[in-house]
Amino acid sequence: MAELPDKRTAFIDWYLAVVEAANLTDKRYPVKGMNVWTPYGFRARRNLDAVLVREIEATGSEAVEFPALIPATEFAKEKEHIKGFDAQVYWVTRGGLSPLDVELVLRPTSETAIYPIFALWVRSHRDLPLNIYQIVNTFRYETKTTRPFLRVREIHFFEEHTCQANEEHATGRVRSNLDAFAKMAAAFALPYLAIRRPEWDKFPGAFYSVALDIPVGDARTLQIGSIHHYRENFSKPYGIQYEAADGSQQYVHQTTFGLSERLLGAIVAVHGDAKGVVFPSSIAPYQVVVIPIPGADSGEGPLKVATEAAERLRRHGIRVHLDGGEERPGAKYYRWELAGVPLRLEIGRREAEARSATAADRLGRKAPVTLDRLEHEVAERLAEFDRALLERARAAFSVAFSVAKTLEELAGSTTVRVVGWCGTEECGHRIETAIDGALLGTPEDPLPFPVGEPAGCVACGRTDGVRWALAGRPI
Ligand SMILES: [Zn+2]
Question: Which residues place a Cβ less than 5 A from the ion ligand 1?
């Protein structure tokens, strides 16, 4: 097996090599940007989706599924939205041999599919809030270089759409989404920042957009999701109205919350290392791999004990794989490390005789576990592994940012920069030019590292109305 490229100096090469070597996706499908989910990658995706479903449903959101095709007439109703997506949509113009009377859009996102139906579902203030989500594929004609999970044309998309009685309740829903995402991110051991995007970079049709950004080294950031407040921008053109308690007709205020397989890409990017992928146990396709080590004089012992161990863990609800193949143990270790399995149980003659196993986690720590308390000890090792993984990610996160006091300092940045910004678009663009990237926006919560107060705008020097902002190079 060839060695992986260096993650620090050749990040994208490393990322592509790791995704390929771990067999998470097959990119040989003959449509650019549309990859095949392999059995191993699909297991990870399903586990990841289960976390999203668990956390969003805990906030009272219900699953639905809307059709993938949207009439062009509905799609065109919100002007900013159509302008924002016009160049990215796939059009369906023919049914069989006949041109369609009303052309159809393959959903790039589902606002315009869902909102005409919301107008039918919402009648009274008693119908509110209406919180629904779906996990479906969406399609965008990406013109930039496509990358597995990071930039694709068929997107595995989680989208929540809600209707609220007023602007304040919609703001509350944004906050609730941020809280739900904090729990999702904790399950994935991913540190992140919630950043309010500047006006010129918000979602088409949104009142404001909060993005969820993850630093992935060298000033690069990965937007893994976003939460939008729409005010009445969609409810007016789509006629989503309700009768208030006082009998008046009101337009709903809406929000959305979107996540995609970029989350999986972020997990690979943040946790992966020189040996390959590292999965947190919450989404690992296999949480444990059991490897019997047959020796010349060990007979059936190791395989028998390994089989028993795997069976017991499986019954205990742990995702386990027994690798009893012919390969040398060293080759198996290498392969499962590459694939990111959190915990490996090695069982040789000595372990078999002592009814024990050597547990080696993906961060390289080894400890003996006894078969008597196997389920308990494995669960403990996995929890300990997740804690250590989060610690490692946090350590990298804490050094991924640094303050810049002048525009000159931004050139060639190797960290995401924290800068004073007066809020004007002109200064924003000057910052973007200086870092050769983007002004990501202003943090939605206090920054998780000590920075004090900004002295002035990094571009114009003004001191009034100055806030901290983040600038980096989005992937
Ligand atoms: Zn300024």
Answer: 422, 427, 457, 459-460
